[in-house]
Write a structure and sequence with these properties.
Blueprint: E1 22-25, E2 30-33, E3 36-37, H1 38-44, H2 47-56, H3 62-74, H4 80-89, H5 95-105, H6 118-142, H7 157-166, H8 172-185, H9 192-202, H10 207-218, H11 226-237, H12 243-252, H13 270-284, H14 289-313, H15 319-328, H16 337-356
Length: 385
């Protein structure tokens, strides 16, 4: 029997690819997209420009950005057959299940699904960036029993999303929050969902199949679903004054506090720092009573968790913890958090898929077999329990 190899459970610490798209420095709490600091992109950029940067590797000129935005605006519409499925599924299915299904449907409107032409595949990614936010808004609206609202080509990406979801044009503050969350969720190196997309892409499957793998992976509460889970915890806490008691009892019971800790970051998640600043701004804008409580619970829980686990065990808040209260401040329900994540991360997934195909190799890891060998086959009539 050969010696058992070292097994990196969950592929922790294993490098699987070379990339120039994103750099995560988990030891120092730093994040760059194509070499640009996330703090600068959050402050000065917008989601359309960030998507261009991720796809093309450079910031666009004014003319390039306008052409890119025009492509996005012209591709936001949802086919009637897709809309019909949203109306049927939204009555019973979780929005992530609806989004996964209707994203798959988009391939039937593409006459060159399996093409290896990079320019055509790049164009498919742009179409998906445009359509996924429309699909998410339609799902969110229809599941509440409201009529579908068609996209407005006069509005930018974040504005149009909120318009299609709420039926009215957003104010500047709400628009900035959604644009910010799209930017912060757009990319994060080879995380679980990006890796899943690449595994599918490595088989030379099409763009849609690869993206659907990412959507399916993102659904889990240990990945994209963590912000929804964190918000549910805050609702369970109920009142700000219950926060410390709830957290301490949960820690004593060895329960996981959703939204804290990260496989890469061993210090404060830089995206969480940015979102936290916006939480404090929202508190000054006289939010609803529900949002006020959520914001206060989030800030009090953060303070206690840092005192208990931050400096001692390296368990700090991540972006998922603060995302929920911020989304609720713009009247977005918890079940839509992860579909919004999909609507932004499509830029990152698409960029990685296109990059990987430049030097494609089928992913085929090994596993260490622990079972028996050469067992005797017994006919079914002679078998016993």
């Amino acid at each position: 029997m050969p010696e058992k190899p070292v097994i990196n459970w969950g592929l922790e610490g294993v490098y699987v690819n070379e990339s120039s798209i994103c750099k995560v420095d988990g030891q120092n709490g730093k994040l760059w997209y194509r070499g640009y600091k996330i703090e600068d992109l959050a402050k000065y950029s917008n989601f359309e420009e960030v998507s261009y940067l991720l796809l093309y590797g450079k910031l666009p000129t004014k003319e390039n950005l306008e052409k890119f935005q025009e492509k996005l605006r012209s591709r936001r519409d949802i086919p009637d057959e897709v809309l019909a499925v949203i109306k049927t599924m939204s009555k019973r299915a979780h929005p992530m299940d609806v989004l996964r299904t209707v994203t798959s449907m988009l391939s039937m409107y593409d006459n060159q699904v399996m093409t290896r032409d990079m320019a055509l595949n790049e164009d498919k990614i742009i179409t998906l960036i445009a359509k996924l936010s429309s699909l998410t808004a339609a799902i969110g609206r229809i599941r509440k029993g409201y009529d579908y609202i068609e996209p407005d080509e006069k509005l930018d990406h974040a504005q149009n999303f909120l318009y299609m979801l709420h039926g009215k044009k957003p104010n500047d503050s709400d628009r900035k929050i959604i644009d910010l969350m799209f930017i912060l969720h757009a990319e994060h190196s080879t995380n679980a969902s990006t890796f899943a997309s690449l595994v599918t892409a490595s088989t030379l499957a099409d763009v849609y199949s690869s993206v659907i793998s990412g959507i399916s992976t993102l659904k889990g509460p240990l990945h994209g679903g963590a912000d929804e889970a964190a918000l549910k915890m805050m609702y369970a806490i109920g009142e700000p004054d219950n926060t410390e008691k709830y957290i301490l009892e949960a820690l004593d019971g060895k329960q996981r506090i959703m939204g804290f800790g990260h496989r890469v970051y061993k210090v404060y998640d830089p995206r969480a720092k940015i979102v936290r600043e916006y939480l404090e701004k929202r508190l000054q804008e006289k939010p609803t009573e529900e949002v006020r409580k959520l914001l206060q619970i989030a800030l009090r829980a953060e303070k206690l968790m840092i005192e208990k686990l931050g400096n001692t065990k390296g368990i700090w808040p991540n972006i998922d913890f603060f995302a929920g209260p911020l989304y609720r401040s713009v009247d977005i329900e918890a079940e839509l958090f992860t579909p919004i994540f999909v609507s932004s991360r499509i830029s990152g997934w698409g960029s990685h898929i296109l990059e990987y195909w430049q030097n494609n190799k089928l992913f085929r890891p090994l596993e260490w077999y622990m079972g028996k060998l050469d067992l005797q086959y017994i006919p079914i009539e002679k078998r016993t329990e």
